[in-house]
Protein 1
Amino acid sequence: MTEVITERETLVTAPNFGLTKFLDPLRVPPVLRPHLWWKQDDLTVTMRRTAVQLHSQLPETEVWAYDGHFPGPTIEVRSGKRLRVSWTNEIEGKMPLVAVQGPIAQAPGNGPGGYRDADGNLLPGFEIIDGVPDLPAWTVVHLHGAMTNAGNDGWAHNAVLKGFSQLTEYPNGQQATTMWYHDHAMAVTRFNVHTGLAGMYLIRDAEEDGLELPHGRHEIPLLLTDRNLDTDADGALTGQLLFKIPVAPSGAPIPFTGPFNLVNGTIWPYLDVEPRWYRFRVLNACNSRFYRLNLVDETGAVHNDAVRIIGTDGGLLPAPAELPTPGLTLAPAERADLLIDFSKFPGQSLRLTDTSVTGPTEPDLMQFRIEDSHRHDSFVLPEKLSRSYVRLVHGTTVPEDHGHVFVGLVPPGTAGEPHPQMWELQEVEEPPTTLPAAGFIQLTDPSTGAVRTFQKVAQLFDDTTTFFIDHGRWAVWNLVHLGGPTHPIHIHMSQFQVLTRKQLDTQGFDTIVGGTSVPLPAPADGRPIEKYEEGWKDTFQVQAGEWVTVAGRFLGATGEFMYHCHLLDHEDNGMMRPFVVHPPEVAKFHLHPGGGGHHGH
């Protein structure tokens, strides 16, 4: 076993920070199959403080975990089988994080430790994030991707303290899919999830069964996360979780990314596999890191031709899709259902690698060690997957009678706000007499060429609710990105498909005032929608300058739900808003301010 490096200089420069790569086997979370155990339709999952070893060369790390597992147990259910879960909070003590922020240029950058000097004093510019050490375990669970009534959805304000339970009911009336559960407590989601509160949830159905996909020990969840760790006075890694974030020159904290990549709670694990097809349910469970996944051998040669994408957030694709040439980019909260054929590589080792990394982060995520043998594998890659899949098209499979929602994503620094913002927009008949005007955006409709004027009507979570959608109706969400980082936008309650992706010229948006000085010209064609992106999804990458439209039907659940950026630091700092789904018969009796929130009626 390689000895842990303790010299501070080596810790700063070595991409593995003294830890041996591929030393520890991949951990596979335990599976809870409630409908197979005495036909039970209820579970109790208990959150508790526990100690885990992220790497065998590290001391133990304190985390908060579901049933004491990091990540939590994989819950596996049958489509249409209702499940009730009591999420019980029995977490002792305060937040197990050291949370600090400091200047970007401060050595050793975003590596471990590096915020105190040898005497334990904070380095210039660094500060402990006020209030984090005092945070109690205040938790609420969101089943991400589930179509369930709002009372079961994990409303952010409905978190509970130790000694209490959150009672939920999941109808599971969805096709076979990969979902996940995680904490969603108001304003502290980024901290709670970072402590370990995440796990996977799988729905099975007859359509999936008929494909005879790899299963049992040949089907494995891969939850990808990144973390940082503290160091002692000698520079040795302590195992303590370190939530260290840099601060931009504007004073705005930058979302967390860490130098250590974990798969199923282990840093750089390995997995022994047979030379045959395997199925991997891949989830990006990071706070804010994007992964660009490639399969490479020991020489660095890429073998993405051995990989097929068979599903995304909301279930199976109509047919297997190849990985994009540069690799598969997964934003936080996105899922990919992957098949890998190891039969071509007996006796070899392959690595799952993130080719998008910058800074002091080791790009390798894990290693596959292929058995040196030739085994019979009866699995044949099917040409067709989901025969129930229908591609959504505006005006046909999305009926003409549908609602529209407009959301503006505005860059950091807009109107003096250091953080990026999410504006709910309402169309108005007349523009202001003088432009730019704060909160007014003029867009040119790509279909008609007409200039449309929109006004910001809400921004913070607790502003007046403005989006109301009739139960059973289709709605097209227009996500208009006026500048800044890529945002993975997650909409609760339904599943969606990307309809269009256009590219905007955003030069007419005045960030000082917070409005357009001239109407933005009609958008041009944007990035093509790849085959694997045509599937059902609940989380969408929206890049700067893009106007993305997604469509979904709000059927099968009602109540007040949330949508937000799934960069958890952005979500906690204002990029989250509510919307309501209610029966149209009730809607006409509903009085609310302004009368302008009837989007979807």
Protein 2
Amino acid sequence: MKNFLLKKEFSAIIKNKKLLISIIAVLFIPIIYSGMFLWAFWDPYAHLDNLPVAVVNEDKGATFEGEELNLGDELVSKLKDKKDFKFIFVEKEEGYKKLEDQEYYMLVEIPEDFSKNATTLMDENPKKLDLIYVPNESYNFLSAQIGENAMVRIKASLSKEITETYAETMFDKVAKLSDGMKTASDGAGKLSEGAKELSKGSETLHKNLATLAEKSIQFHNGMNEASKGSKEVADGAASLSSGLSQLLEGHQKLQNAANELKTGSVSLASGMSQANAGIQKAEQSIPQLISGTEKLQTGAQTLSSSLQQWQIGAESAVQGAKKLNEGTVLLESNLKNIMPMLPPEKQQELQVALNSLKQGSAELANGTGQLANSAGQLSTGANTLSQQLGALKQGQEQLQTGMSQLAKAGSELETGANQMAAGQKEFVSGMSTFGQKFAEAKDGSVRLAQGATKLAGGVNQLTDGSSQLADGSDKLEEGAQKIAEGNSKVHKGNRELAEKLADGAKKASSVDADEKTYNMMAEPVKVKNEKLNEVPNYGTGFAPYFLSLGLFVGALVLTVIYPIREPAAVPRNGFSWFFGKFGVMAIAGLIQAIISDIVVLGVLGLEVKSVPLFVLFSIITSLAFMALIQFLVTMFDNPGRFIAILILIFQLTTSAGTFPLELIPESLQHFHAFLPMTYSVKGFKAVISSGNFSFMWENFMILLIYALVFMVGTLIYFNAVHKRRFSAAE
């Protein structure tokens, strides 16, 4: 009875209700472990609309091409229609506070310059549109990664919309460009005609430049003469400056004399006023003298004495009048040298005053002379006054006439003296102003001398420049010849340009843009996702990993509750011992695999390429894990279980069930090829998603080899132990 020990093992399990219940529970460990994970993460993206995400719109809008642009509002409107997340639209302060309080997984902020930056594409320094994405990674890291992928899609959508706006504007510019090219074509035609005229003008320019070259030589010769003359001007300016210095000194002396003359003229005017007052009084006394002639007879003696004194005063007055006349003549002589310096109107006024003064002084001298003569006659005839009253009366009448003339001349002399004093005052003031201007003239002469020196230097440089001008004129003549030739080519080129612009305008006007054109410009490349062996959801993608993990854990837990080393009865040999233990584990592993397959296929709805092959591969995977763990626990007991846990940990990281192998540390990649879960994951992927059954069978055979190797190892161990323990007892 080859299966004797196997029956004993099952009989012992059935009899031990506690063990039986434990083993039955263990049979569901793989599906509880793997099925729960697959169920929980079967398709998490299908529930993103339950993930709360805050949206803060700070955009203030902008104006683009005369139209209002509010990308922030448009984005908010689109997000309200989308079901990517549970979008909650809040104010900035509230959004960040609740994000910190873990009420939101992430926050999307639309800055205030969002629309404004969209209008800067054509600017010298265009600005990108910042869309601020703030995940709370401490709340849930994977949600942050999911949100980042969603932001990429939002960015692509916004980029398309903005590019459509720019494309529409660009095509409008193309239409305007067409009109501009037509205008440019017409202008190019006119430019061609102008170039033709320019060509003619350049020939004329060439002739004129030849004349210029000839005249520049003459100009150079003239500049040599000008250089000599400028040196003479500099020398003359220096002499002028020296002469003005001497003249300024003479002017100072003349001004001092004028001040003295001003003082004398004031004194003269004062004296003339007093003399005129006396004459006026004398004139008023003559009528009384005539009326009192009769009384004079009695006072002849007294009159004789008085007339003698009067004669002496009259003679003195005659001498003073003569001196006044002589002084007036001398003043006129002195003023003749000064008068040309005065303004013409002042000269005329001064001359009139001098003439009046001369006439008055002459009349004064004549009158005082007559007065002296009369006084003498009166003095000599005083004794015979009474006898010659008729003659005295006649003489008194003559005296009255002379006194009237004298009074008139005195008044005129007083007026002239006052005018002379006023004129002299103005003359002194003019001399002061003249002195100031003379000083400025002297300073100007100094600057003139300096400028003349600089002029001489500049003329020398100009002379050198005229030489260079002559050389340049020759070169200009040569250049003008080349310009004439170039203008001829420009004429031909402009004619060709006009033709090409007309063709370009025709082609540009043929562009007919619409919404489809704008859309194509905004999204010229459309990624067509043609998936190879499409995986519909996370559950399908992770099924190979979690199924392998569940079956391995189920095998490991079974060794905890089932006595994997001690036989239910005395084994005949090591083979029956091994078969009894492995048989129980194999049947348990078979049941675990079938239960797991039923749940993932029937309950979770896992779609596979072949159900029979999927079930078959699940069974070989379970048996391979059972064989491995049986070997470790049988050989080492609890340390063996610890080794199995270490293998499980290594398999979690190196089996490439989650992240690609190339993304894990290189030091861990070396364990990949030596662990059985590597091949179970590959085989499950082939039978579930790719349908590459040859690849599945390849991994199936590797797992079968794992199973056989560890089964043989366990068999060898049981044979060795059986010989030591039971052979001696027999």
Protein 3
Amino acid sequence: MRFVLAIVAFVVAAVMIVAGIAQRTVFAPPTRIEAATSVSGDPRYLVVDGSVLNAHPGQQTLTVTGAPDSAKQVVAYGRTADVKAWLEGQKYVAVGFQTATGKLTTKSVTGKPAAGHSEGDSGSGSGATATPAPTPSAAATTDPSAAASPSTTADTAQVSGPNPAGSDLWLEEFDGQAAQVTRMNIPDDVSVIVASDGQKAAPSKVAVTWPVDSSTPWAFPLIIGGLILLVIGIALYLWGLYTHRRSRGPRRKSGPKMPKLPKAPKYKPTAMIETTPKGRRSTRRARVMLPAALVGALALTGCTAGTDAATTPSKTSTPLTTEAPSGKGQLPPAVTVPQLERIVKRISESAAQADAQASADLAKVRFVGPALQLREANYAIRAKKADEPALPAIPASPIVLSLPQATDAWPRTVAAVIQSPKDAKGTAQAPIALTLVQATPRDNYQVEYAVSLEPKAKVPNLAPASIGSAVVPPDSKLLALPPSKVAAAYGDILMNGDASTFAKQFNAEGDTLRTQVGAEWKAKQKAAVPATASLAFATAPGTGTDVAMATNDSGAIVWTDLQETQTLKVVEAGAEVSAGVTAAALTGAASSKTGIESTFGYQLAFYVPPAGSDAKITLLGFAQGMIAAKQIP
């Protein structure tokens, strides 16, 4: 019997070991699922929707090949609505997924105008240098590898378009060889755009790969169990062999058998024992037996009742829900934090290049409005005045505060506060607050305001960057002062000081600009002018856009532009006034016999409390400088 059990153990062990090894080798499941397609017609753009990439669970791997120039191929992804807005008016191939066959499909599409973007707009705002738009090429490059497949549609027209490389709209971008194989894990509302430089055809072959769970949980237990059973079989075999050898020794003959013992008579109860006793003793026994039976029955009943109670559901109070409100219908933030970090880094590099060369043309790449106006004037002054200090550099990082606008239309506004590094002497410098504006989907973000924060400035509570903030209309009456009137009111304070009608609405504590160029400073400047000349000051709102973004307390942070004109006029015939070194650099004349008119620009950032609040309007930061000068005719 032991030999039989050993053989069975050997057979079962062999089967288990072979089955375990086969699961890891011959019958091993695939490690990935792949769907691929080829595109014909040399289209300039391919768009892979997020639903295609999420056709199977797991991290997606996108492989693109067949580009005419692999060094110029681009793979980027962004929100689907943003990708389609960027492709407005452009023909592209939409890559889909057919669930029944598990293959990719292609379809030629012409981009439609984005919401909040005029249909006739080509995508470049005034004064904005967006993603460079290439010029049409005479002949389109045809890739021999871009053969038509059954899933492709009609050929797409070979028309050059804008270059997607370097656009601030993308959440992530891969260029050149890095774009050939990209791993991502994006949601359904994000799409991928594949292109070259807009002039040449996009990569013609696209493949998407998903990982598959190829684990074999039974392989290891089968192999280990088979080895254990093999050891047991060997033990049984050795035991049987040992017993068999012992049983082969000499045997003795047995003696006569012992006689069988007589059987004992069967027990038969007598009538006296079987008779049930009667009387009081019998009653006592019955009483004793009845409670015992009841206890047993109750015990059994109790067990059954306990089982029913455990399996029968009982009503409980409904717990209060503490889940966050659904984000359905909520507008997305204009940018994500990683996206903003990349944008600020690009702006910092562009600004450093423009500042180093004092080039107004380079400054126009990333500056617009009051920020550009101040930099252009600074470059002009530095060209004539060597000791004129440059404007504060735009640091690349770290971003200590980000406030994107919650919107899906254009223009878009984003505010960011960046910590400035220490200067050469190790002195801490004020953080730089930027107001960035994106005019159209194809424009990059540009700096409209760049101010240095006040030392005692306290930024109010703001919405988190993952939610974003709403833009307050310039004429909103829900604030202590409409954003469009803040510049004029503050200008009146700079002119008249505490005598201004708006003085009580503004906080004077910590306002260093009022100390530098306020009413007291102006009075001293007028007193220093000789009798042969006169000095007059005037303020007016600048040409910049008033930008207001809501805070959590129903107030707003307002960025505005104020211009102050200083008119130094000759009042006595034959007299002459000095223009000053800075004004002379802009006018080209060191003195004038008529007068000099200098214009200073003030970029201002305020916190404006809600209407009815006891809080005052507070200056958070500013930037100032001469922006123009001319001789009085």
Protein 4
Amino acid sequence: MCVLAALGFLLLQTGAAGFTILPGESHNHQEITEKAILNVTVEACHALAVAEGKTFIFPPQPFTPETVAAACEAWKSSKSFHRSIFLIKAANWKTDIQNILNPAYHFDGETFTDGRKLITEGLSVIKAAIKKHSFCSAKWNLGVILHPLQDFYSHSNWVELGNKLPNSNLIRADTSIGNIAAKTRATCRSCDGDDCRNNILEDILQENILTSGYFGFLFSKPTGKCSHGGLIDTTSLIQPKGGINKDTFTSSHGHLHGKAANLATSATSELLQDVREAAGDRLFLQMLGINKGSSRPICFVLDTTESMNDDIAAVKAITSSIINSKVGTNDEPSSYILVPFSDPDFGPLMRTTDPEVFKNYVNSLSATGGGDFPEKSLSGLQLALTGAPPDSEIFVLSDASAKDTYLKDTVMALIEQTKTVVNFLITIPEEFSHHTQANLPQGGSRMAKADMQLYKDLAWTSGGESMIDFLFDFLKEPHGPLRGFDLVDNRPIAGGNGSLMVTLTGSDTATVTEVILVESSGLGQVKGLVKGQGEGEFLVQFDRIPSSEFVVLVKGQSNNSSSSLSGIFQRQSPTSLRPSTLIVTADDSDTSFEPGTTISVPFSVITSGAGGTFSIQATNDQGFDSTSPSTLILETGVIAHSTVNLTAPSNTPSGTGVTLTIQVVAPGGTDFNYDVLRLTVFTPVTDFTKPVCQLLSLQSHCSDNCNQSMWELSVQVTDGAEGSGVDSITLREGNGTMNTSIAAGSGNINLVTYTASCCSPDVQLVVVDGVGNVMSCSFSVRTAI
């Protein structure tokens, strides 16, 4: 999975400040978000199929991750698709919890300008991140901005004003949101008892004035203004009393809940379409984890130091053999990644979807440099773990011990977070070439026994090459006025009770019957109480979490089988989990910062074990300069606070993802825990103007027999003198031939020529500029005939 940075996965109960999240009769944020993602994914896959001249079979309604992945010919992507949807929904929920009293995140209190700014700025970050393949950052930010977007339709009077379509200007920074009520203008009267259907003033509705309710705990509101309403909104007790929210069917304006939810779904789809157009269908689907063939990328972390000179040819042969064994099969990787390492350098990360390009690149490598024998293998592995998508398969090829052993805990934390399979292929002298790694004689390589054990420990953590068909996340009860569950995104706490959310993948009908935490030592196990939550999700509660390393064992029943015996399944997590007595929590309220600036990340630590002096280590995968304390003194049960400062060089490309790992180690190394944040370096956007298409000529040679006649089109595309420049021009509709060129003497004017059969009379160009502004330009020969 992507790192769920300090995730507030909350299953909201009564009193939520937006569409509810728990399953029930009312529509909720998770339903709205998932429905829109599935719809837009189907459209993207359909468009790709049409472009490739293939027949696309739409999946049956209602769509599910399994049926959509199958329709996209990406059967093995259902798990990664599930994980992507979960991350986006989780960020949406976290935004509600973390910003419950910030009105802009909910469009409360008529904060329309600030709310729209959150959406448009976040949209720019998403587009830049996708362009740099920082998919986890893109998905997290996507979930964040979807929350205020969806709340607009529940908290404002957009529905009451009679609007049937979404407010498209919420995702456009250079337009008017609407006629917003002045701060001094009254907008509501008190409800008639429990009946609030007519509490918005008639002149507000007649003049098409935009307003939204005020919300807060023990807060006041301007005279005459509407309130949000609900049990925990104390402003609704102040004249004018009542509220206007449409969060549920039982809310103040619950009679409009269905309309608000439908508009929120349409608006979510509209925003996703904008992201899709800016990224292109293939990159958009890759961001969501939809890949044909195997959904699992393959990554090689390769030692290129001089000591590998005798082995480099064998390494190239091994690499080619692994790739060739998968190409053309159902296990063909979705992408190929290479991270070279030596000493003192490692990286950069190279990525491609073409196996031949990848093999040629590997074959061009030579073994040079290195100095002393130990190399920076763990630095290379860290970059691979943060640069490759979750659930990847990584092969580390080396003949040397790790020089950067201080990164062991960081690498182990990233393996646990991403659930990636790591395989170590360590070259050995010829006399030992017939021995397996497990039976390698002591001293049989140039590594000490401790060095070999380090690699074995990391390989064991990643689970070999085992496969599973479920996702799982540990939960805890949050603090504050909202009830439900927060997600534990690092090591679970040993000894106490706990809960687990299990999501089945690969089946729409299977059920979980039993979940067991099995200690790796084989000495004990803890069975949980399973409660179905719908949509393939199961909440499992345990009276205690094991105090030693364990795995998650899931048992269930496939309801597709006529035989109950043959329908039984059992799966085990590939990643072994290590409980901790430490809780490390980093503040992720700000996840983007500009090149040349420093971001301060506050974090807190608490231990239920013995106190003392604890070691602190903060590392990042981009090698950015950072400062943090080296130790913290902890007392049992007392929270300690500190800060990590991270500086991005001024030349960092916009959209670059940075993974920050903060780990805390108990005295003597007896215990450790961590938190991981996905940050994005982003240059603020000043260009909000869409590219422009100007028709130069349209010539028709069409006859009654369209198969024997052609038509031609010439278009000039520009992005304005102050624009960021045209980045891409693609065909969305049309089966003809398109060519593009730069006009002589100008780097900002693009010429497009298009030729097609008269049987294909329409064409649509999608033009994207350097910061993701999208313009769709449609032309037709029908108008010229």
